[in-house]
TrEMBL record:
Superkingdom to which the source organism belongs: Bacteria
Xref: Pfam families: HAMP (PF00672), HATPase_c (PF02518), HisKA (PF00512)
Organism listed in the record: Kineosporia babensis
UniProt domain Histidine kinase: residue ranges: 248-504
An MF annotation (GO) of this entry: phosphorelay sensor kinase activity
SUPFAM superfamilies in alphabetical order: ATPase domain of HSP90 chaperone/DNA topoisomerase II/histidine kinase, HAMP domain-like, Homodimeric domain of signal transducing histidine kinase
Localisation per UniProt entry: Cell membrane
Known catalytic reactions: ATP + protein L-histidine = ADP + protein N-phospho-L-histidine
Keyword Kinase found: yes
One cellular component (GO) term of this entry: plasma membrane
Transmembrane segments annotated in the record for this chain: 161-182
Database matches in SMART domains: HAMP, HATPase_c, HisKA
Upper taxonomic lineage: Bacteria, Bacillati, Actinomycetota, Actinomycetes, Kineosporiales
Record-given protein name: histidine kinase
EC number: 2.7.13.3
Amino acid sequence: MRTRLSALLVVLMGVVLVSLGVPLITGIASDEARTLHTDRMADLSLFVSRAPFGEDPGLAEVSALERDLQRYEELYGISVTVYDAARRPRFSNDVGSAELTPDEDAALDTALSGRLTEVWDRIEPWDTEPLVAAQPVVRDGDVVGAVVSVSPVEKAANRVLARWSILLAAGLVTMIGAIALADRLARWLLRPVERLDEAAHQISAGDLSARVPTGSGPPELRRLEASFNDMAVHVQGAVEAQREFVADASHQLRNPLAALLMRLEGLTISSGLPGVSQERQVELMQQALADGKHLAGTLDRMLALAKVENAGAPAAVLDVAAEVDERLAFWMVVADRRGVHLVRRGVSEAYARHDVGALSGALDAVLDNALKYSPEGGTVTVEVRDLPGGVAAEPVVQEALPIGGPSSAPMLALARAVGEASSEALPSGGGVEVVVSDDGPGVAEQDLPRISERFWRADSAEQEGTGLGMSIAKTLMERHDGSLEVSTSPTGGLSVHLVLPPPG
């Protein structure tokens, strides 16, 4: 491709040089012809003025004219002949044949008709025919004769050849420089393409870590390299996520599936034994059903995690406090059933930039985890904070909801009303933090960094689970520059911090 591009650039440069050179070459030949014609006509004017036409030309005038003609021929090698109106030669420095050539005859006719010979088109290096010029001799308004000159063109043709040679040499040097420049330009233009091609081959061969080094080439191709690298990063991430998903699925589903098959096999065997009661068979079937549900739940959570890792919506400015209140209204029913109090604290309005669907999913996963591990009669506190840099509204405090108390919707509406009456909330400028705290058993300090790992569960965990909830929440929050952090709450349980970037 580089050779073809270089050839194309060279051809274009050649076309440019030819387009400029042909007019220059033609102009040089025409300029030399005009110069020679002008010189000859000036010389002929001198001889015309001194031509002794009349009834009694003086001897001195005749002698002076003959002397000048002879001297002119010696200096320039140009023959000059003075003719009368009857086309008879009167004076001449030409010792050759007196017979007129066709060009001389035509020039003489032109002069005797009272006109000057026209300018020659051009003189070219290979021209050998002499140039003929003629001028009429006018006395008292009548044409009484003509002066005709025959000029050799060898010197003029040599001058044209010399100027053409200089021009062609300059064109040749320019062409050589153009070839070198075209090769360097083609290399510069195609170097990013070659790097892209090499990286694409490496990726197609299985090396997903291959990247295109940037920093040289046209801006458009540098942007293409950056886009290619971004695409390679996404492809590598997608492939690695797929591999991790397959590996995790095979690992996590193997044991539950084996247990389910064993229970089904035991159920099949027990059905044929006479000493097994119907109650025992029902118990075995319920255990098998529980294992199947656990297996289905694990698979559903894994598919949900894979979905949130590979899909997303664009970020938008949203009221985080309003979204928190909406999710609390949904989870209030679950909290009532489990005997857990929900407390809403913090500002009444807080604006951040994120995906509302991702925030809702993360809140659901965190609240589900908090309610699941909180003891009966425990409390889950949800606080919305404006981070430094924003203008915070007055805090809103929702008292603990008693078990069997008012429905969630009226109580949350009351919380919103208290916040609106207390202050005028302004959009946050430093981001928003949502803290979900519980008073459950908590996690050991050294295990806190592992909470968001896939399938990780604390050794002391008593509740059923897949270990994917916090991983899903972390993945959802990390979209659009959000984050999820876990710490120990003041009551001994967990505090999950969901941080969202500012709206600006």
